[in-house]
Amino acid sequence: MRSGGTSDSGGQLEPGVAPADAAHQRQTTDQLLQATDANLKNIAQRKLTPDQQDMVRQITFYVAQSRSANKEGDLERARNLAVKAHMLSDELANH
Fold first, then answer.
1. What residue numbers bound the domain in which 84 lies?
2. Which of 2, 16, 47, 62 has the most CB atoms within 10 Å of its CB?
């Protein structure tokens, strides 16, 4: 691993990520978060067990962390958190 040198990111939010790739990653993250929000709205209509309520809190936490990471330019972390939130919300929505 190198530190410093001539391979600066040139102002990109994430080193080594082309602007088109960054835009695609952001779009994918946004789509996952929108689908998760839709699942949460459907889930909110139901009476939840305490375990399911804990899962909703975890999903909400992942969503908030994903949005924060996205704003900070940490696109990979934002996408990973959005995937986790979406998977949990799908699981909960289908039960």
1. 19-93
2. 62
Residue whose structure tokens are 């929505």: 93
> What's the one-letter identity of residue 89?
S
Task: Give how many domains the chain has, as a whole number.
Answer: 1
Cut 0.90: pTM above it: no
Amino acid at 9: S
- The DSSP code for 69 is H
Contact 67, 36 (CB under 8 A): no
Identify the H or E element spanning 89: helix 75-93
Q: Return all residues near 82 (Cβ < 8 A) that are at least 6 apart.
A: 28, 29, 32, 33, 36, 62, 63, 66
In a domain, 46, yes or no: yes
At 16, is the pLDDT very low, low, confident or very high (cuts 50, 70, 90)?
A: low
